[in-house]
Amino acid sequence: MPVYQYRCEKCGHVFEHTEHLAEHAAAHPNCPNCGSQAVQHAPTPFVAKTARKS
């Protein structure tokens, strides 16, 4: 299950939320810091690691 990062627009708190791919489009988690519903998905960088050298 992927972990998505969110940022609260009210208090600025950045937090992670685990959700299924199918739930992601409709998911609107509340901020765990202040309880606000004004949260935005924050894109996060990732690195793909493979067994082969490129």
Structure characterization notes:
This protein has a domain at 3-33. It is 7% helix and 26% strand. The chain contains one helix and three strands; from the N terminus they run ββαβ. The relative contact order is 0.31. The mean pLDDT is 86.
Task: Report the uncertain regions.
Answer: none
How many β-strand stretches? 3
Mean pLDDT: 86
The portion of residues assigned to helices is under 10%
Class based on secondary structure composition and strand pairing: mainly beta
The percentage of residues in β strands lies in 25-35%
How many whole angstroms does the radius of gyration measure? 14 Å
**Helix/strand order:** EEHE
Write down the overall geometry.
elongated
The number of helices is: 1
Terminus-to-terminus distance: 28 Å
What would you call the quaternary organization?
single chain
Largest sheet: 3 strands, antiparallel
Strand order of the largest sheet: 2-1-3
Keywords:
54 residues, mainly beta, 7% helix, elongated, three-stranded antiparallel beta sheet
Q: How is this fold's topology laid out?
A:
Layout lengths: L2 E6 L5 E5 L2 H4 L14 E3 L13
Antiparallel strand pairs: 1-2, 1-3
Please outline what is shown here.
This protein has one helix spanning 21-24; strands at 3-8, 14-18, 39-41. The protein has 54 residues and is mainly beta. The chain has one helix and three strands.
